[in-house]
Amino acid sequence: MKVMLEAKELCKSFRLSAREQKLQKTDQRIKTAVDHISFQAYEGEIFGLLGPNGAGKTTTLRMLATLIRPDSGDAILDGASVIKDAEQVRAKVGFLTSELKLEEFFTPNYLFGFFSELHQIPAQVQEERRKKLFDIFGISKFAETKVADLSTGMKQKVSLAVSLVHDPSIIIFDEPTNGLDVLTAKIVTDFLLRLKEEKHTVIVSTHIFSLIEKICDRVGIIIDGKIAACGALDAIRDGKSLEDRFFDIYLEKAGDINE
Amino acid sequence: MNKTIFTIMKKELARFFRDRRMVFSTILLPGLMIFVMYTFMGTAFSSQTEEQENYRFRISVADLPQSIEKIAEAQNLELAVVEPSRADEVKKQVKDQEVDLFVLFPQNFDEETAAYQVSSGEEAPNVEIYYNNASMHSQGAYDTMIQLLDNYEGTLTNKFDYNQGEKEYDMATREEEVGSVFSSLLPMLLTIFLFSGCMAVAPESIAGEKERGTIATLLITPAGRGNIAMGKIAALSLIALLSGASSAIGTILSLPKILEVGESGMNAGIYQWADYLLLTVIVLSTVLLLVTLISIISAFAKTVKEAQSYVTPLMFVVLLIGVTAMFGEGAQKEWFYYLIPVYNSVQNMVALFSFEVSGLHIVLACVSNLLYTLLGVYCLTRMFNNEKVMFSK
Ligand SMILES: Nc1ncnc2c1ncn2[C@@H]1O[C@H](COP(=O)(O)OP(=O)(O)OP(=O)(O)O)[C@@H](O)[C@H]1O
Ligand SMILES: [Mg+2]
């Protein structure tokens, strides 16, 4: 199987302001969010990053999407390094997180066109993709409504469509079902499965066990900035439910849950 | 042109021009407001001077000599004669602003002045003029009376005259006169208008995108950050230029109204289209520079509000530089002044409006402004690449 994404010893720490120190009840000035994380994802699979709040999932994904630079380590996405060929990575990757907002003033139609142009997609291909993606997510009905006037779920769908204008080979998705009702969540998870069928590589991060169990082929459990376990879903589960296994691993690595 | 720059530019322009409220408040409103305000001010101003011109001074005189009476009559100046014994009473009226002026001549003024010899060293006859500095009319009456007496004194010892007759002695042409007014006012006003035009759009487009989290969406596309910076600056400059132009047109249309006092036919028609072309070139290079500066400052800010407060010091500096156009004798002659950003444009505008334009100075200013802009674009690109600046919370 072809390795589409390889994270190699990724590290990222943040300097904490006095206010942040107080909030996190620490007197350390440096917070290590990601601590030597390595994993691989193969072509045509969905890889899940599972971890509790503050484990470093979002930070890892932001590094993979070249939004922030690793302090050390590297990641190779479809042959392009996030350090050396950031622009190439951006052309290959579709990144989705609640952090990325769409300009509320514009309509889904306009935004789809705008981002297609930035990705230098030929006009005809643009139209085909627009039709396909708008149909899948049911955007056509409100394609000419300003984003400001859309509901959270609708906005999420538009963001999803816009992040896929360039038909990326790797899709990185932070908390894909956060804030969505069951219907919309199902549309999204079905779509992820469809991407997988079309030989795309999908990386999702979540703290929801059921989502991982439903769609992921392989999973990396991330605790306190480190990979605590990584492998095929069944191998990780080892006959138990994912939730039980998670607590086992968590106790082993981090000690008391209430600590 | 690079396709990405063009795409970004198109989006920025669409964001602006599809928003009717934004177009109205940034482009139409400034010009309209300036026109209405200046026209109103001009009208109020001229009606006030008209009222003053029609006013008849209330002047009381004691012991009015014949000589003065004749001159006053010739000047159509009404003098109310009172008894010297009532002096105190009239002085109180001046104090209460019931009378504008009280003039107390020495008795036998005419005989005394005729007999007086300057060389004798004795004290000259003294006219007492009581006035009230708190009243505008009293001041006017005082000035009129002083002038009348000075003139009369001049005729008593007439040794020479100057500028007699109807000849034109002021050698300034009509154009130069208008030019000197324009060159002291317009560079400052234009600079301020351009700055506020830039202020209206740049923080919104840079800090605003940070604040709303839309810049990150842009930054994960393969669009080069330098192209993003250039596209934004180009579009913002265009909008700022329109906003500045609107204010300038409002000013130029209302200027005749406000300067009408004593002069008629004051208008910008004295300049050739080549002058306007040069002005456009100067203004364009200035706007590019200002937009770039404000964009860089805005990139540091987390919110639009914060950006606006960060830009305030720059605004004061630019304002001060604009004000320098009102002082000094024409434009600077030394070439190195034209390398100083903003100051170079102000000086070029002064030169342009007073018909002293120098090609070298304009080229120096535009080239240096472009270089500063390029440097600024480089800085802005670096900032777009800097996660600490772009994602500061
Ligand atoms: N820009 C930043 N400045 C300071 N600290 C940060 C920054 N970004 C992340 N952190 C810290 O790094 C740690 C990991 O954060 P991250 O957002 O990656 O967690 P997460 O796994 O996505 O959690 P969640 O499930 O809550 O989204 C947290 O302790 C967070 O406070
Ligand atoms: Mg997160």
Structure, explained:
The complex is a heterodimer of chains A (259) and B (393). Chain A has 259 residues and is α/β, with parallel strands linked by helices. Chain A is 39% helix and 26% strand. Chain A has ten helices and ten strands. Chain A has helices at 18-23, 57-64, 86-92, 108-118, 123-137, 152-163, 182-197, 209-215, 233-237, 242-254, and strands spanning 3-15, 30-42, 46-50, 72-77, 80-81, 93-96, 170-174, 201-206, 218-223, 226-232. In chain B, helix 9 crosses helix 10 (273-300) and helix 10 (273-300) packs antiparallel against helix 11. The longest helix of chain B has 39 residues, at 174-212. Chain B is elongated and about 100 Å long. The structure holds adenosine-5'-triphosphate (ATP) and magnesium ion. The site of adenosine-5'-triphosphate has 14 residues of chain A, from strand 2 and helix 2.
Structure summarized in a few sentences:
The complex is a heterodimer of chains A (259) and B (393). With 259 residues, chain A is α/β, with parallel strands linked by helices. Chain A has 10 helices and 10 strands.
Query: What kind of assembly state do the chains in view correspond to?
Result: heterodimer
Overall tally of structural domains of chain B: 2
Structural class of chain A: alpha/beta
- Biggest β-sheet of chain B: count, sense, barrel? 4 strands, mixed
Shape of chain A: globular
- The total count of helices of chain A amounts to 10
Instruction: Give the strand tally of chain B.
Output: 4
Give the end-to-end Cα distance of chain B, rounded to a whole number of Å: 35 Å
Spans of chain B of at least 5 consecutive residues whose pLDDT stays below 50 are none
Spatial strand sequence of the major β-sheet of chain A: 6-7-8-3-9-10
User: What's the story with the biggest beta sheet of chain A?
Assistant: 6 strands, mixed
Number of helices of chain B: 14
- Gyration radius over CA of chain A: 19 Å
Average per-residue pLDDT of chain B, rounded, comes to 87
Determine the fraction of residues in helical runs of chain B and give it as a percent range.
55-70%
Strand order of the largest sheet of chain B: 2-1-3-4
Helix content of chain A: 25-40%
Class based on secondary structure composition and strand pairing of chain B: mainly alpha
